[in-house]
Structures are given as structure tokens and as C-alpha cells.
Amino acid sequence: MKPIKIVLPILLLSASAAASWALIANKPAAAPPAKNRPLPQVTVAMAQPETLRMNVISQGIVKPRTEIDLVSEVAGKVVAIHPAFADGGFFKKGERLIAIDPRDYDYAITRAEALVAEARKELLREAAEAEQAQNEWQALGGGDANDFVLHKPHLAERRAKLAAAKADLAAARLNRSRCDLAAPFAGRVRSKQADVGQYLDSGQIAARIYATDRAEVRLPVPSAELEFLDLPLTYPDAGQTSLGPAVRLSAQFAGRMHNWEGRIVRTEGALDDKTGLLYAVAEIRDPYAYHKDRPPLAAGLFVRAEIAGSERRDLIDIPRAALHSGYQVYVVDKDNRLRQRRVEVLRADTDRIVLGKGLQPGERVLVSGVELPIEGMQVAIQTSSSSSAEPGHGAD
Hints:
conserved putative lor/sdh protein from methanococcus maripaludis s2 fold, CATH 2.40.50.100, 6-stranded antiparallel beta barrel, elongated
């Protein structure tokens, strides 16, 4: 037993020494020091002051400037209508659109003429009697006669009755003229509500019509955009017009984009109490004029409007991606480090922003390459053409 007790510890010590030597001999080599990480590659836009026209974009629906109900002023049966008296039909100023049976009104004229003739006869007879009474009184030599003896009240009554008879005749003739419903302007029928054989009461609507010489579009303008527009906000002085800036309207029609020219003619009297918008009204002359390559500017058409704005100098137009929350951008300084700038944003759309203040000419503005920019971060600027500033066009 003693040899085993002596040999076993020796074997265990030998095995432990061999294992330790193996661990030391096969230990992993020390990792090489980590290399510096590459700098973020960013794209920039140059801050270049420009003179830009700050056009304002709006939209609206085309409406006629003048639209009325054609109302019958007399009662009667419709006996004729204009050939174009139908929904969408065109007519000229003064054309008869509806004719009402005039016979009852012709009869009324005849009766009124008879009453005028009778009243004139009675006046002449009363005048003769008054002259005779004057002569007889003078022959008697009885002094001054009173008005009744001289038939002066009788004459006044006959004159009044003649005037009333003439007024009745004029009214009968006026009613007869109202049997023809004429167009007060050149226009178009929006909807008709009467036809041949129908009986119309006095005051009944026969059609809805509108003029085609002018069209209008109500264009909402945010209050922040008003500084870019020369709008007629006040009442014009005598002899002055209130025409405002030019407007270019565009709309998709029959698969093509078409354009029309107009002018701002007025603004509405108050801001919308729900939206805070001011509505400017654009007027388009002769919207139905023939153009071989353009359809008419029909009522009800939805259009996009570009209102000519004022020119502003020393503005900077850069990509929208350069703007961060809080109206901030980052510029790359001469050491290629990011520096934060707070800017004045005059206009922002989906692609571009226009800045008024906050940048110096020639500064390089970070556009992309860093998702979370940090003040003082060092970056590397890409040398591709994408890093150059794009021409400014966002304000047009």
C-alpha cells in the first residue's frame, strides 16, 4: 500500500504541471489595437444667396362671377322655349329663353286703352263745362266765383282718372312684355325647370343660368403667406383699380394638363373664423373662349393656382432634408466639424426650404449622411456631384 500512496501524489503533481505548461504554451495572442473608425461620409449644399420670386400656391373651384335664377314675373302657360334652353345650353344677351301665352295680357292692354280713351273724353267734357261755367258767371257779373262753381275740383278729378288709366295701360303693357323671359347676359343654362306646356306662377323659378364672360376662383391664402403678395386689402381710391397679382391656373382635363391666366381682383372681407385663412378672388376673363389646344374653363373645375409673389433678395434655397427639428440646420466648418445653426424658414415644401436668416454665404450645409448629427462631430464630405448645391427653384 505504501508504494501506491507515494506514487499517486507524484502522478497528480506531474499531471497538473503538464496541464499548466500546456495552457501557457497555447495561450491566445494579444489582440492588436483597434484602428480608428472611418468618418461619416456626408453630402452638403452650399449656402448661396439668391433673388427669388415668392409665388404662393393655392387651389379652388371655378365658379361663374354672375349666376341667377330666371324667374317668371307673370303667370301663364309656356308656349315656346329657346332652342338651346337645356342644361348646358349657351345663349346670347337679349335672346328670348321662354315665351308665356300672352293673350290674357293682350286683352288687358285693350281694356286699359279703352279706359284711357274714356277718361280722356270725360276730361275734355269737364273742361268744356268748366269754360261754360266761367263764361256764364262773368255774364251775370256776380263778383268772384268759388272753385266749385268754376268746376276746378271736377277738372282735377278727371285729370287724375286719366293719369290712373294711363298708369293701368302702362302696367298692362309691362306685364305683356314680361311674357318673354329674355337673357340679361350672354351665358349658359345650369339647370332648367320649365318646358313647353307647363304653367308658371308669378315668381316661379324657370331655370338657373350664369354668365360666361367672367369666371372666379376663391383661393385660400394662409396669413403667413400674405407678406409675399401685393393683395388689394383696402378700398381703392377714386380712379384707381384694385387689380392684384397675376394668377396661373392649371388643371388636369382629358388626360392633359392645361393652363389659364387670371388676376386677383379682390379679397374677402374677413378671415375665415375656423381656419384663419384669407380668401383672395381670382377673375378669369372670357373663360369659354375658343382655343384649339385648350378646353374652356368650365364651372365646377378644380384648379391649382400659382399667385405671383414679390421678389425677395438674399434668400437661400436648400434641400428640405437639411432642416432638423426646432428650425435648425448643421453646417460643416473648415475643420469638417458640425456646427449648429438656428435659421428663419420662410417657406418649406416637400423638397426644398427657403431661408431668410441664419446662414452665411458660402457655408456648407449638411444634407445627408448622419442620422443624428451632434455638435462638434467630425465628418468627411463626399466629393461626388451630389454634394454640390442644387439651383434654387423652390420658391417659384
